[in-house]
Amino acid sequence: MKTCKFTSLSVLILSLVCTWSVRAQHQRETERCQVKTLENSNYFENWLQTRTFKTAINTTDIYKIPIVVHVLHLGEPEGEGFNLPKEQIEAQIRILNEDFRRKEGTPGFNTHPDGGDARIEFILARTSPDGKATDGIVRIDMNQLENPEKFPSSFNFYGQYSYWDPEQYLNVWTLPDWPAETLLGMATGPVTDLPGGDRFEVSDPVDGILINAPYFGPSDIDSNYNRGRTLTHEIGHFLGLLHIWGATGCDKDDYCEDTPPQNKSHSVCPATPPLACDGRPAMIENYMNYTPDGCMNIFTKDQISRMHTVLENSPRRKSLTTSPGLEAPVTGIPDVVASAIKVFPNPVADHLNIDFGENQVLNKVSISCYTSLGKKIFTNHYDKISKRITLKMPFTAEKVLFLQLRSESLVVNRKLVLR
């Protein structure tokens, strides 16, 4: 019997490489996606089994996730070529919400008895890691930055250009340098924080999703994958879903009872679906299959339960749903309050002092430090602070850092020069 859990593999680092042949207008090999888990899948399976897996989907809460889209381009003006227009990026977010919410009257709707509303919504980030207002889009001309990475890892390489705190944002990069119809997308899988996690190597410190730029959002590219479903598929992996055929073979499926077991992927949309291993029609319309975008319209109830379990328990996933990036920056704070906070010395070497003044008490405070590209260096949490605290500065090759102090009542940002 199939059960909703992760498949067991004997390798420490899993990379599911997904290859299939395009039989329509493109006659060369296409990889729809690759999935990189950040540690041993047996370990993640054991972690899932310690949690109470849902037998019914959450019908009360809506999980909201902030997305930052890092648009990597080659110097084109905004809105041209690989420097994707804002309207296309916003349309991609709309498609995600149609698909994950099974919105009636959209291509994401279905009437399948096993389909459901995932109650997961996506929002372009409204507050950046430094506390400033943002539209959730970062544009980077790759020709203007020298990358110290030389493709030892795709995620590490592209993360050098731009990367926001993965505990607070779902990082998505659109890439200009992948050939069309070769690889459409890649995703990292969930991470577990159970005791014993230090036994496993982390394959990629950079967490998120890579999308071949022509397949991001709706486009007029001559392809079966021009309706924005590549990101829907990859977010499924990001939230813990396997391909519905598992690892190829009828006995190695995705471990969700309501997705009929397949022994391979499907790449076309026949009027009459082929039969699955158990005699039921294969679910060619599932987002975790390999069929063209026009076919896809369903997450099943078991798949939704699986994603909810990850969102409620997994580090770097659970924290997304309470991210400050979901809301606009705190405004209207009296200048006298913020200006009373002194940060010194600046330039700073080993220790940094933060002086809050004699009569100011702040509750539920977090103090974070970020690079100029938004990569978090550290975060400290305090229930209550007053007067002065001293922070030991970490060793880093960065010359400039950005300090953010966030409490229940204010957000303060300071630029730090390191010496």
In short:
Helix content is 14%, strand content 24%. With 419 residues, it is α/β, with parallel strands linked by helices.
Give an overview of the whole structure.
The radius of gyration is 23 Å and the shape is elongated. 42% of the residues are buried. Strand 1 (15-21) and strand 2 form a beta hairpin. It starts with 14 loop residues before the first strand and ends with a strand. The protein has six helices and 15 strands. The longest helix has 15 residues, at 86-100. The protein is of the alpha/beta class. It has helices spanning 41-50, 86-100, 154-159, 229-238, 301-313, 335-339; strands spanning 15-21, 29-36, 63-73, 120-124, 137-141, 170-175, 183-188, 209-212, 342-344, 351-355, 361-370, 376-386, 388-392, 400-406, 411-417. It folds into two domains: 15-325, 3-Layer(aba) Sandwich (Collagenase (Catalytic Domain)), CATH 3.40.390.10; 330-417, Immunoglobulin-like. Strands 1, 2, 3, 4, 5, 6, 7 and 8 form an eight-stranded mixed β-sheet that branches.
Helix content: 10-25%
In percent terms, what proportion of residues is strand?
A: 15-25%
Element order, helices and strands?
A: EEHEHEEHEEEHHHEEEEEEE
Q: What's the mean pLDDT score?
A: 81
Task: Give the count of structural domains.
Answer: 2
Structural class comes to alpha/beta
Q: Which superfamily, in CATH terms, is the homologous superfamily of the largest domain? A: Collagenase (Catalytic Domain)
Distance between the termini: 61 Å
CATH topology grouping of the largest domain: Collagenase (Catalytic Domain)
